[in-house]
Amino acid sequence: MVLDQQKSNRKPSGGRYKPAHKKKKESMGRSPSLTKIDEKPAKRVLRIRGGKKKIQILRTNVANLYDPKTKKYSQVKIVSVVENAGNRHYVRANIMTKGTVIKTDKGNAKVTSRPGQDGVLNAVLI
Hints:
Layout: E1 3-4, E2 28-29, E3 35-37, E4 42-47, E5 53-60, E6 62-67, E7 72-83, H1 90-93, E8 95-96, E9 101-104, E10 107-111, H2 115-118, E11 122-125
Parallel strand pairs: 3-5, 6-11
Antiparallel strand pairs: 1-2, 3-8, 4-5, 6-7, 7-9, 9-10, 10-11
């Protein structure tokens, strides 16, 4: 079933709004990618509107880590998810989204990219 991202048909009082327009393809959504930590990396390439491509990371165990003190980038291994502001249940399942605090070999880092939309996992050392 397709996720719908248009305005609700119900008012806060429980009454109904008059339908403004029919359902359209532009208001269609999709299921979240739920990027997890795994030894076998996996990506998914999607065709989006306008014929462009979007890359979703499904599983990964490495991140591009930026160290603000030395101003250098390095690839590090991800150990686990420490904190996730998006959903507290994502911590137990090791699901990464933007803003997630991850534990790496060099210490804790905060994810700055959107792994389900960008196709890359960038993080900044805290």
